[in-house]
Q: What sequence folds into this?
């Protein structure tokens, strides 16, 4: 039986405490890229009762995504934005989502992300990661940015870390392991990195600014 | 001396772009912070490192 909204909020308050839950529930997070990082970040934050997620990706679910991304086999061929929204509604029926099925560029990023308190960079491509990071830090200095770099391969789980680079810029990953070298992306290590990003978001909401 | 990613390097007087090129960075994959502030990409060839600058260069790798 589907829990009511009141039951849902009470369960979250019991877990997180009412003050923190109120902060989580009033925060808007933008997730740029809905692959292995973004789909896992979205699910973690949906479970935590985040206020609103803005989900951005231009791509469709492909069979090669299923080993690490939070999509079901039955959703292959669907836009990731629509597929993820469907998954998230099953997890948290009271989550507010906005989907944008577009490619993020320097031209549209400001408009897409203006409502966000915190932005997660969750792209696959290194140049796209650098583009968004530079854009947000240069053009949207009031936002927090949580980016990721280095999570490919079978390296130790413990080498994935979170680093505070500047006041509003946090970086998760081992900062080294490139997808072009070795065996590519492994679901567990990508999930660890995504969990670092999602946890950094929750810590920022809780006013915990150090790592 | 300039502190770059925690190490002291003798590059005072060089522009950001000169240093990135010298050190073998791909400028399309980096974000550069100088004394806690982002260096706008358009200013890489204008901003000159000076002694006691604290520089952080994040060089992104692929995967996500």
A:
């Amino acid at each position: 039986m589907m829990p009511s909204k009141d039951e849902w909020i009470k369960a979250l308050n019991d877990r997180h405490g009412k003050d923190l839950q109120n902060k989580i529930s009033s925060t808007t997070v933008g997730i740029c890229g809905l692959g292995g990082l973004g789909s896992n970040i979205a699910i973690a934050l949906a479970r935590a009762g985040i206020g609103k997620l803005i989900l951005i990706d231009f791509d469709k679910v492909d069979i090669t995504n299923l080993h690490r991304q939070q999509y079901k086999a039955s959703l292959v061929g669907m836009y990731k934005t629509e597929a993820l929204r469907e998954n998230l509604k099953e997890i948290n029926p009271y989550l507010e989502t906005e989907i944008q099925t577009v490619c993020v560029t320097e031209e549209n990023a400001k408009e897409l992300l203006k409502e966000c308190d915190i932005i997660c960079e969750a792209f696959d491509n290194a140049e796209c990661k650098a583009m968004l990071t530079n854009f947000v830090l240069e053009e949207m200095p009031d936002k927090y940015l949580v980016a990721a770099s280095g999570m490919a391969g079978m390296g130790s789980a413990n080498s994935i870390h979170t680093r505070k680079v500047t006041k509003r810029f946090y970086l998760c990953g081992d900062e080294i392991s490139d997808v072009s070298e070795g065996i590519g992306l492994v679901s567990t290590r990508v999930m660890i990195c995504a969990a670092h990003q999602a946890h950094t978001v929750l810590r920022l909401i809780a006013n915990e600014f150090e790592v | 001396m300039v502190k770059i990613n925690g190490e002291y390097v003798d590059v005072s007087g060089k522009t950001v772009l000169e240093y990135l090129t010298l050190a073998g960075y791909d400028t399309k994959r980096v974000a550069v912070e100088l004394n806690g502030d982002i260096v706008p990409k358009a200013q890489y060839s204008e901003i000159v490192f000076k002694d006691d600058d604290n520089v952080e260069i994040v060089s992104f790798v692929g995967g996500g």
About this structure: Helices of chain B lie at 16-22. The radius of gyration of chain B is 11 Å. Residues 13 and 49 of chain B are 6 Å apart (CA to CA). The first helix of chain B runs from residue 16 to 22.
